[in-house]
Amino acid sequence: MRTTITLNDKTHSFASYYARARGLTLSSAIDELIRKAQTAPEPKPEICFSPISGLPMFPPSGGTITAEMVKKIEEEEFDPQHFT
Q1: Is this prediction's pTM over 0.85?
Q2: Which of 53, 60, 82, 83 is a good FRET partner for 44, with 20 to 30 A between their CA atoms?
Q3: Distance CA 22, CA 24 (A)
């Protein structure tokens, strides 16, 4: 099927490089990359162990959960009828 797509500069540059490196046309390279993305396995969360307790934990993701964030969520989700 013939179609026209618009790629940002970085994506076009990557696809062009990939096509040249594999000896493919740009269309074939994009098709191959999309097929690879469709069949890629779901990433499994990496489990690491706490150096202090030895308990398993998820690796840090860079985000920090503050006490204020927890308090806000608790206030939003609190339903007094649920506890009576």
Answers
A1: no
A2: 53
A3: 6
